[in-house]
Amino acid sequence: MNDSPIVILTALDVEYEAIREKLDVPQVRRHPQGTRFEVGRIRGGKCRIALGLVGKGNQSAAVLAERAIAEFSPVALLFVGVAGALHTHIALGDVVVATHVYAFHGGTSEDDGFKSRPRVWEASHGADQLARHVARTRDWAGGGRAPEVHFGPIAAGEVVLNSRVSGHAHWIRQHYNDALAIEMEGAGVAQAAHLNKSLPVVVVRGVSDGADGTKETTDREQWQARAVANAAAFTLALAENLAGEEQDRARSEANDTKGSTDMTGTTRNVAKDNARVGVQAGQVYGGIHVSSERTAPTDPTKAIAGLAARLQQARTAGQLDEDTYQAAQAELATASETLLTTTPQDMGAVTLALKKVRGLVAEVAILAAEVGTIIALVQGLS
């Protein structure tokens, strides 16, 4: 099963924290160039999130979005944050989901004025449809009254708009009259996703001000925090649904592959003890049954060493992500050291470390079963 995460990016610390507080024990992933991401599952859910902070502006958003895509090969890329509303029917605290993202600063300056040369990225059809479904269910707000969710274009530039009468405000209304909100990162994120095989990208914004000269007042009244909370709740619900659809797709493909094989007869290969069995062939006629029949381990130290080797194999095969692998290996190292350095051996501490490993690898059934066997061995020796 594909366990690729969904990347969520934010520009501000308050936005980052709104997502992070919903993750169960997020683990730091460091990019070689120093960027720090945190990876964890949504508390009470199944979706893995890779969370990153890009700072303000489309350029940094594009660079770090590209970095996140290369690092995680995500299912989708979501950007969550605040924005200023460009129309009076959009209330403070409402959520705006981009159907299009305008990069509105492109243009040419001529004798008779500035001519707009906009670039635009359209949300993928599937992601847009799913976001609308989440909005219709109206249960993403945690049982409270869900704010309105608006779908439409968002304008992304390099300035904070806080006026309805400035020359810049008039220019936005003249050239981007259908834009619902204005912000500073969506174009960079959309461009990065577009350059990566049209990776699904959704920009979600909570409305924290009216882009009308009242930003200082609305910030003082804590509308930024409220808008962030609403946008974060919607984004996490969308992420769960995106992950669920990806799992359904992978399951369907696996079933299709399984159902398309037409084999008769059976070849049986059995691996015992620490041996592994596999099949490598160009064409195979007849059925193949692959199984493992290990004799029960008797030495906990050797059993833990063997498990450590199989964790490495699982990481190489893509069954474990790097964070899970490192955390599990650390617990195994603790268990091994306890066996070697405590007299009498502290089997309770060893068991606790192994139970943590079992929790970490729970989604890889064969590894979880092996850990269970070793736990039973340790408990039998205590």
What report would you give on this structure?
The protein is α/β, with parallel strands linked by helices. It folds into 3 domains: 6-251, Rossmann fold (3-Layer(aba) Sandwich), CATH 3.40.50.1580; 263-295, no CATH class; 298-381. The chain has helices spanning 13-20, 58-72, 125-137, 167-175, 186-194, 215-220, 223-260, 300-316, 322-341, 347-360, 365-381, and strands spanning 6-10, 23-30, 36-42, 48-53, 77-85, 95-103, 107-110, 113-116, 119-122, 149-156, 181-183, 201-209, 266-272, 287-293. It has a 5-stranded mixed beta barrel with strand order 5-11-10-6-12, surrounded by 4 helices. A hairpin with a 5-residue loop joins β3 (36-42) and β4 (48-53). α3 packs across α7 (223-260). The longest helix is centred in the middle third of the chain and has 38 residues, at 223-260. 37% of the residues are buried. Residues 246-256 have a biased composition (Basic and acidic residues). One of its GO terms (biological process) is nucleoside metabolic process. Residues 5-238 form the Nucleoside phosphorylase domain. Residues 257-267 have a biased composition (Polar residues). Pfam families: PNP_UDP_1.
Q: Could you outline the blueprint of secondary structure elements for this entry?
A:
Layout: E1 6-10, H1 13-20, E2 23-30, E3 36-42, E4 48-53, H2 58-72, E5 77-85, E6 95-103, E7 107-110, E8 113-116, E9 119-122, H3 125-137, E10 149-156, H4 167-175, E11 181-183, H5 186-194, E12 201-209, H6 215-220, H7 223-260, E13 266-272, E14 287-293, H8 300-316, H9 322-341, H10 347-360, H11 365-381
Parallel strand pairs: 1-4, 1-5, 5-12, 6-10, 10-11, 13-14
Antiparallel strand pairs: 2-3, 3-4, 5-11, 6-9, 6-12, 7-8
Helix pairs in contact: 1-7, 2-5, 3-7, 8-9, 8-11, 9-10, 10-11
